[in-house]
Amino acid sequence: MSFTKDKPASDALLLVLLQNLAGQPLPESEGLKLKRVQLAAGQTLFEADQPHPYVYLVRKGLLKLHYLLANGDEWVKSFSHEGMFFGSLTALKAGGLSSFDVMALEDSDLERVDYFELEALAARHPAWLLALYRAMQHFAALKEARERELLTLNPEQRYAAFAQAHASLSERLPKKDLARYLGVTPVSLSRIRARLRP
Fold first, then answer.
1. d(CA 124, CA 118)
2. Of 33 and 50, the one with more pLDDT
3. pTM
4. Which tens digits make up the pLDDT trace of 166-178?
5. Weakest mean pLDDT among 2-11, 33-42, 48-57, 147-156
6. 39 phi and psi, to 5 degrees?
7. Which of 158, 167, 181, 182 is nearest to 64 (CA)?
8. Using CA atoms, how far apart are residues 100 and 87, in angstroms rounded to an integer?
9. Judging by DSSP bridges, how do beta strands 44-46 and 34-39 pair with one another?
10. Long-range contacts for 151-155 (Cβ within 8 Å, ≥24 apart)?
11. How far is 115 from 159, CA to CA, in rounded Å?
12. How far is C-alpha 170 from the geometric centre of its chain's CA atoms?
C-alpha cells in the first residue's frame, strides 16, 4: 500500500461527491486534507477491530468489504468500485473500531479523508452537515436493501437481482467472492448460473 502526501481538494472526486450530496458549494473545502492511497490486488486496506476513522472514495479498482470469522469462514458484506464511497461506521466515532476487513480485488486507487475533519466542518457549516447527513442516508439505504435481499430472496433470486443491477461488476468478481456475498457455495453459484443461462 502506498500513500501520497496531502493533496489539494481542488481535484478530489470525494469533494465533488460531497458537494453533489449537499447540492451547494462547501465552505472551507480548499483546506480539506486528502490522501491518495494505492493498493495492489490482494492487499488489505484495513482490518476489523482497529481504529480507522476514515472515509474512502474509489477512483479506480474494486475492493471487497468482508468479515473473517474465528473458524476461518469469510462472509462478504459488499463490494466497492469506481465512484463509490465507504468506511466502517463503527470506526467513525471517538474510540471506535472498524467492524470488517477491506481487501483490494484489483489494483485500486482511492482517496481518503479523516472523518473527524468532516465532522469539524459540519459543526461550523450547515452545508457540510447536510452532505454528511445525506451520505449517512445513502449508507442506511444500502444496508436496508442488503438486509431485505438476504431475508426475503432465495439464492437464485439474489443472484438474478445482483446480475441485473451490477452486470459488468459480476464479470469482474472472483466466483468465490460473489458466492460468499450471495451466501452460497461456489458450486451452488455455478448451478444457479447454469439454470439462469438463456
1. 10
2. 50
3. 0.89
4. 888 988 999 999 9
5. 2-11
6. -125, 140
7. 181
8. 10
9. unpaired
10. 155/182, 155/183, 155/184, 155/188, 155/192
11. 34
12. 16
